[in-house]
Amino acid sequence: MKITSLETLCLSRMHEPAEQWITGSGRTIKADCALVVVHTDEGVSGIGEACPYGIPHLIRDWVAWLSAKLIGRTVREAATQLHPNGRIADYNLVPFINPHDAAIAGIDTALWDLRAKLAGVPLCELLRPGAPQQIELYASSGCRYDWRDPEQLITETLGYRDAGYTACKVRIGTEWRWDNVTTERFLELMTELRTAVGARMRLMVDGNKRLSVEQAFVMAKGLDQLGFAWFEEPFPYEEIDAYARLSAMVEMPISGGEQFTTLEQFRPYFEKRCFKIVQPDVACSGITEALHIAEMAERYDVPVIPHNWHHGLMTMANAHYVAALPRPHSLELCMIQGPLQWAIVAEPPQIKAGGLTIPKHPGLGVELASDLAARFPYIEGHYAVMNLR
Ligand SMILES: [Mg+2]
What we know:
By secondary structure, the chain is of the alpha/beta class. The protein folds into two domains: 3-120 and 372-378, Enolase-like, domain 1; 125-357, TIM Barrel, CATH 3.20.20.120. It contains 13 helices and 15 strands.
């Protein structure tokens, strides 16, 4: 079986005004999606979703450029041609992740889908025979609340609890300076949230790297006392020694790494014991590199709980990855991506009461829905606009 061509589907869907979401000063107005399809001369295709923060049309350019190295090769040969470079993204051009590595992640996932299809088994079974089929999902959102109405966060989280989720991750809301929010005020809201949802629901906070080191130390102590399950990306990664100090100070795990595309990027954070949970994402790193990261995490006795946002194919790939881990924990599920999240696959998997059942079909277990490019044409421009007060 030889690779004959590669294709990238760039898709978009505008969020209805009421469904737009806000963090900091950004308002997300549309869902972007980048899907990679690897075609072969035997009619079987592999599929993968690349993190669209690499910007879909730039990812498509890189897939086209890389395809020259892959066409005519077997799936196994092709896999050896791909090397994420781990370059830090140019934040002025693309946020979070460079499009080259996102393209590789999409291709690498599609190649693994093909390998498992050739073997006739679900991907997780290929990666680890006997892997569990049931993956716990935690609700990930808390992205909609404005500090003029923070009660929205509690109402939203109660909705996930009532839907059967046993864990939920929230964010830190709109720009704090707009409403003179302090760490004390934030911890008051977290205390209210903790009381409202009850002790049985695990809660996590994602700082999205927006806090200062000083704020993060105050918050971490407070969240630790409130029994939060982890505190994610409190401040920028450049503060590596502060990460190490913070992690050593509190019992509660400090977590991070969602935008790292290579083990090399994780390495100093492992060595300095910065994270007690690491959060690679196969849509950023590809499955091959994510497996290397998991191996190193095991050596450092650090659980892997992948980052997972955007659409359903990414969720399937991350779910197989979780199932293949030596100690499967849980997987993030974006609660606010809108209908495109699962419209991209023909038969979505079963998701109920916070759990996903991996289908028994070979590969990732799902196929792409038809006419996607016609139904969800790509809309040029950034997915977020400035949220002006
Ligand atoms: Mg995060």
